[in-house]
Amino acid sequence: MSNEAILHQHETGTHDVGHAHEHHHHETFITKYVFSQDHKMIAKQFLITGIVWAIIGGLFSVLFRLQLGYPESTFPWLEDFLGHWAKGGKLDPQFYYALVTMHGTVLVFFVLTAGLSGTFSNFLIPLQVGARDMASPFLNMLSYWFFFAASVVMFASLFVQTGPASGGWTIYPPLSALGEASEGSKIGMDLWLISMSLFIINALLGGLNYITTILNLRTKGMSMTRMPLTMWAFFFTAVLGVLSFPVLLSGCILLLFDRNLGTSFYLSDIVINGKILPNEGGSPILFQHLFWFLGHPEVYIIVLPAMGITSEVMSINSRKPIFGYMAMVGSLFAIASLSFMVWAHHMFVTGLNPFLGSFFVLLTLLIAVPSAIKVFNWLTTLWRGNIRFTPGMLFAIGFVSMFISGGLTGIFIGNSALDIHLHDTYFIIAHFHIVMGVAGFFGMFAGLYHWFPKMYGRYMNNTLAYIHFWVTMIGAYLIFWPMHYEGLAGMPRRYYDFSNWESFKMFAGLNQFISFVSIIVFAAQLLFVFNFFYSIFKGRKVTTLNPWGACSLEWSTPIRPGHGNWPGEIPEVHRWAYDYGKDGRDFIPQTEPVGEHESKH
Amino acid sequence: MELVMTEQRKKMHPHKFILWIAISSITLMFAGLTSAYIIKRNQPNWLEFKLPVIFWYSTATIAISSVTIWLAVRAFRQGEMSKYRKMLVTTFVLGIVFVSLQVTGFIQLWKQGITLTRNVSISFLYPIVGLHAVHVIGGVIALLIMFLKAFSRRQKTYSAVPVEMMSTYWHFVDFIWIYLFIFLLMIR
Predict the structure, then answer these.
(1) Which candidate from A215, A286, A293 shows the least CB-CB separation from B40?
(2) Which is more confident, A501 or B118?
(3) Average of pLDDT values for B161-172?
(4) How far is Cα A494 from Cα A507, in angstroms, rounded to an integer?
(5) Which one has a higher pLDDT value, B17 or B47?
(6) For residue A413, what pLDDT is reported?
(7) Given a cut of 90, is residue A44 above it in pLDDT?
């Protein structure tokens, strides 16, 4: 079955391949912008929903940083804004936990999973492999609407009387399983679980499509090893999602049973306020196993797309082929497979058998090898390149910097012995924010600045973009670097107020500094949001087909491609996606046949 | 177009491919649950109980339905539409019978005092088998849609892809049940 036949089946795309650009059939506002089956529109829907969530999630962090940085002060305006959650202008401790939980949930799942992989997998896969649309445009549309439903439920949970879930984004039972345990474990927790179940369905439907499209719908000549590295990264991301999310779903279902039907999968020997609960025989560790079997691949679901985007943007803007293409693919594969065998390193101090722990230490530290290969290849791609410092390129370089800094601390905490001291401290927070959070965001920004011209036919404003980059880059280090010292000194995460502890009083100034910087960095992100929306309507127009001089297929489409992507035939591919600076030519597009006297790469 | 179609025949249809990945994904969900069950079995107060005889009947039902859907696909490929419709209806009915037998089995268990909250070993039974039943019900709904399409005069489809996908999915839920049944028999 060919690409065209699939589109015809769904009656969405081009009626006649040869006349795609004329687009005779009528598209209403609803089918074009709301219930669209065009992968490019779905990508934009994911992106904009992700941006809205990023603003909400980022705002949460600003709110709890206010508490952490200025524990003695009150902010009366907070009471106007938050009501009984901030009586007298001071955050309620219960609400502080809700903020921390929601910040994590929103950013990990809704922004860096749906917003990053949802946006770029949808947008780039058909364009870069040369397909008219996804394997199943309908499932793709369904995937977005499941995400939307998940968003609505999660957003609604922010407004219930007892507040949203507040047991941490990992929702460990028994805290999350018992409504009596805390305010946030009441209806807010149920809504969290329902929302996440919808989210998992979104991730699965999306992942199925991404895998199938990459494996089945590549255009003529596009062998797997001719694909841009973004495709490989999205492919492995989708595989990770499809294999790990169902396990989280089973964990969530059991938790829902425990919460609402009185079972004891995760509960045993519990006393609340002097009352002994009847639950017996369960084990909260079981939840941790199920959760982290997803949870660890999840961090690679976030960082692999960022790696793919970085490789692509970096090669284009160095005007050099990516260094070690096959090594890049191999290390993506190695990271993806290892990610399934390291989940217990999140559980070193749960009473795990130390003998078992040593295996997980070994496998965890092994991830440093493919990661180092990738970093080496990025640096050698830059080496002696003819570098153009576009905003996308800056963020790609920033990604590598973050990945190195955050990756190195990973070697510290991957050690079960060091983890005894470092677990649940600010060291962990610093590590995963740099290597996953900030790095994920940098990959996303690199991709956005780079592919914005393809998405909207306009450029984003460069001056604002450079301000955005430098504030974010310097700010991210100023926020998270000091946290390593706090963590090494034993300062625990999740605490509401450190001024009560003699050992952590000395960090009052540092905490204040971190909070101050995080507010500035948040403001810089708003600058980006302004730039993004302003440029959609008023940005400088793209006038050439291939503004970055890139080899890959998406730049052979019209400036504003319609549904079906290419008017006329889908181009045939004759070479890999990285023929830059070859035989005296700046770049050779993938569609150009290999010449007789051309040198081999 | 004709040429393209025949050329691509050898390759799997993308929708079928999607189904196979979905199947691997669903398999992992059941793998997660059953491995949790295995881990929990080692605890001291594990309760043993007998599965009601009715589950043997339900197993036979779903196994037979697998045969009927296979016959349906064969009839469809040979263009024997009336036989195809008959077999589709049979599968649909057997699917409903299977779910009812499962529910009856659980009502019997419940009456014997093997209730959801009595012991973790029993608690596991309900979500695992329940999730499987949900997947069978999903299949029954899909069968219903196919059944309506097969009788509609307006719709004339000659593509075997949806029918084949239906049968793949149906064999899959059948296989999962047989796996779960053997698992529950052996593991207790």
Answers:
(1) A286
(2) A501
(3) 91
(4) 15
(5) B17
(6) 93
(7) yes
**What is the band of A568 on the pLDDT scale with cuts at 50, 70, 90?**
confident
Average model confidence (pLDDT) for chain A? Answer: 91
Q: What is the mean pLDDT of residues A545-567?
A: 92
Average pLDDT of span A132-141: 93
As a whole-number percent, the residues of chain B with pLDDT over 70 amount to: 88
Tell me which residue in B12, B15, B117 faces A263 most closely, judged by beta carbons.
B117
Domain boundaries along the sequence of chain A: 3-20+31-587
Cα separation, A250 vs B25, in Å, equals 12
List of chain A residues whose C-beta atoms are within 8 Å of the C-beta of residue B127: 250, 253-254, 257
Find the CB nearest B18 among A212, A245, A281: A212
Cβ pair A133, A7 in contact under 8 A: yes
Name the CATH architecture for the domain at B13-37+56-187. Up-down Bundle (1.20)
- CA nearest neighbour of A118 among A150, A140, A135: A140
Instruction: Tell if the CB–CB gap between A246 and B124 is shorter than 8 Å.
Output: no
Query: Do residue B39 and residue A293 have CB atoms under 8 angstroms apart?
Result: no
CA distance A570 to chain B (A): 14
Q: How far is CA B121 from CA A456, A502, B118, B171, in A?
A: 56, 48, 9, 28
Q: Where do we find the tokens 């740099």?
A: A434
Judge whether A432 and A404 are in contact, CB under 8 Å: no
- Residue of B20, B91, B11 lying closest to A5 (CA atoms): B11
Q: How far does the CA of residue B161 sit from the closest CA of chain A (Å)?
A: 10
CA distance A342 to A485: 26
Q: In B, what residues contact A, Cβ < 8 A? A: 1, 4-5, 8, 11-15, 17-18, 21-22, 24-26, 28-33, 36, 39-40, 43, 45, 116-117, 119-121, 123-124, 126-127, 131, 161
**How large is the average pLDDT for residues B53-62?**
92
CA distance A421 to A487: 9
Residues in A 108-137 with any Cβ partner in B closer than 8 A: 135-136
SS3 A580: strand
Which residue is closest to B10 within chain A, CA to CA? A1
Over the stretch A220-252, which tens digit does the pLDDT of each residue have?
999 999 999 999 999 999 999 999 899 999 899
Over residues B118-128, the mean pLDDT reads 80
What are the structural domain ranges in chain B? 13-37+56-187
Interface test with B, best of A250, A292, A572 (most B CBs within 10 A): A250
CA distance A379 to A381: 5
- The topology (CATH level 3) of A3-20+31-587 is Cytochrome C Oxidase; Chain A (1.20.210)
CA proximity to A291, closest of A265, A321, A315? A265
